[in-house]
Write a structure and sequence with these properties.
Blueprint lengths: L6 H8 L1 E5 L12 H9 L3 E5 L2 E5 L7 E3 L5 H12 L4 E5 L5 H12 L3 E3 L5 E5 L15 H14 L1 E6 L7 H10 L2 E4 L3 E6 L8 E2 L11 H8 L5 E5 L9 H7 L3 E5 L2 E5 L8 E3 L3 H13 L5 E3 L2 H4 L5 H7 L8
């Protein structure tokens, strides 16, 4: 993410960019061809060589961009590039994620002309320059959802301040169906559970559907839910790598063709497991909190890319967890 997301703004601001091809979690293909094709349509000369994307343009021109599939980072990249392009840019099949709208609001605070964010069609009228602005970034809905899953799985009560419930409805609905109690106290989200859950199916989809970034955490709590849950992963083809680790802890999960069938078991047993990616790490931590005995989770550097002091926050609310 970090590398590819500076491509658009660097090109628009400096007329030249050389950025590394993205790495990150090995959860499936994350092709950058949509980004490149869109920038080329805006007049950029782009080449990919030796693991780097090199792009140049004296000034980008507005264009009609038709994404063949929904891409969050692609939408964000072109949104930033288009703010300083000459003329109008229309992004069709744009991502509607709340983070895209948050970025649009930030850019508008800096003087950009953007309409349609939050819908599949975003229009940008290019300006000659942006100015400085003060802006508060939205709260992390995935972190909030992760704590909701932790409470659902372990039991207890927690208050989440500034949790963006309005853009978390798919996660909240699934967890309420499973047995979590959720109450909106106006800026504060109170969640509670007795730790006993019922199985509930989910299917990951682009926003406003159930986010793929919450799938591992949700699967972790379904391992002990009463009944059988069917989890369909429709975004990334390799996003079930945490299944093998959950099975080491005693989970009953069968995977075939992007579908996981999770049959609830009486208990999980602590085991040494390995994190394969960011959200899988969080899922394994939640599973370990609900399991008997002690678990050891290795390769938690994945976790640190998406959660700030996750172990300290959990310890502050009663978890027996330490980083070694």
């Amino acid at each position: 993410r970090a590398s590819i997301l500076v491509l658009g703004p660097l090109l628009a601001k400096r007329g030249k960019a050389r950025v590394s091809l993205p790495g990150g979690c090995a959860i499936g293909e994350r092709p950058v061809d949509l980004h490149i094709a869109a920038l080329e349509k805006m007049g950029a000369a782009v080449s990919v060589q030796h693991g780097y994307i090199e792009a140049s343009s004296s000034r980008l021109n507005g264009a009609e961009i038709n994404f063949k599939s929904v891409t969050v980072t692609g939408t964000e990249n072109i949104l930033m590039a288009a703010t300083l392009a000459r003329g109008r840019t229309v992004i069709n099949n744009a991502a509607a994620e709340p983070e895209v709208s948050d970025l649009a609001r930030f850019l508008r605070a800096m003087g950009a002309y953007i309409t349609g964010d939050g819908t599949p069609i975003i229009t940008v009228e290019g300006v000659d320059e942006l100015h400085s602005a003060d802006y508060s970034v939205m709260s992390d809905r995935i972190e909030a959802g992760t704590f909701m899953c932790a409470v659902a799985g372990t039991g207890g009560k927690l208050r989440l301040h500034n949790a963006p419930l309005k853009c978390m409805s798919s996660v909240a609905d699934a967890l309420v169906t499973a047995g979590l109690k959720v109450q909106d106290l106006g800026g504060v989200l109170e969640i509670s559970s007795d730790g006993r859950l019922n199985s509930a199916d989910i299917s990951t989809k682009p926003y406003p559907g159930f986010p793929t970034d919450m799938q591992a955490q949700y699967m972790a709590i379904m391992t002990k839910a009463q009944g059988t849950a069917v989890i369909d992963e429709n975004i990334f083809e390799n996003r079930f790598m945490h299944v093998a680790e959950l099975k080491r802890m005693g989970a009953d999960i069968a995977v075939k063709d992007g579908r996981a069938v999770v049959r609830g078991v009486k208990e999980l047993s602590g085991a040494p497991v390995m994190a394969s990616d960011l959200r899988a790490s969080a899922g394994l931590v939640i599973a370990a909190l609900t399991a008997t005995n002690t678990s050891e989770i290795s390769r938690v550097y994945h976790l640190d890319r998406g959660y700030q002091e996750f172990d300290k926050k959990l310890r502050a609310i009663g978890a027996q967890i330490e980083r070694v």
